[in-house]
Amino acid sequence: MTQSAPRDLFPGALEMMVLQTLRRGPRHGYALARDIKGTSGDLLQIEEGSLYPALQRMLKAGWVNAEWGVSAGNRKVRVYKITPAGRRQLEREVSSFERMLKGISRVMRPAQP
Fold it and tell me: Is 13-107 in CATH node 1.10.10.10?
């Protein structure tokens, strides 16, 4: 049996994970992707082609702000911070996710004899 290809995240999952990671402190894009991968125990890998457009959407929505900084490797990087609006959005996303997970868990319970 072959291993199936990784599935896409559900809508809003990437934004929720980025906002949660930024709650721990400001990060540049590469650090965000690395931290999400590490925190997930290497189960999730965020690609640049998904991360940077998501960050742009979050900037536009006012959930994060960004300023230019310098990385540990002395490179110019854009550093992202969560905003108060981003914290409120994260609370909404987590609440919605928890409801969805609860519903899925109920459906997936073994049938009672």
Answer: yes
